[in-house]
Specification:
Blueprint lengths: L2 H11 L4 E5 L2 E4 H19 L24
Antiparallel strand pairs: 1-2
Length: 71
């Protein structure tokens, strides 16, 4: 099972379990799964079925960009 499959499995099996903690903010596996799917959808809409690698650069905070609809 690859990393994305593990996240998806955990998001379905235990969506309220903690995936990431930063300072006083917590990200659950359910939220991580939703954000991961949102990012994947955005990339698919922008680049279609192009199988070239895509670099995603982020930081340690749970929210990387405005793609997420969550605060």
């Amino acid at each position: 099972m690859n990393l994305l499959e593990r996240i998806d499995h955990r998001a379905k099996a235990a969506p309220n379990s903690t995936a990431h903690i930063s300072s006083d903010r917590k990200l659950t596996f359910g939220q991580l799964g939703t954000r991961s799917n949102t990012l994947a959808t955005h990339i698919l809409e922008q680049y279609g079925n192009d199988r070239a690698p895509v670099a995603v650069i982020g930081h340690r905070e749970p929210k990387l960009s405005s793609l997420s609809s969550e605060p």
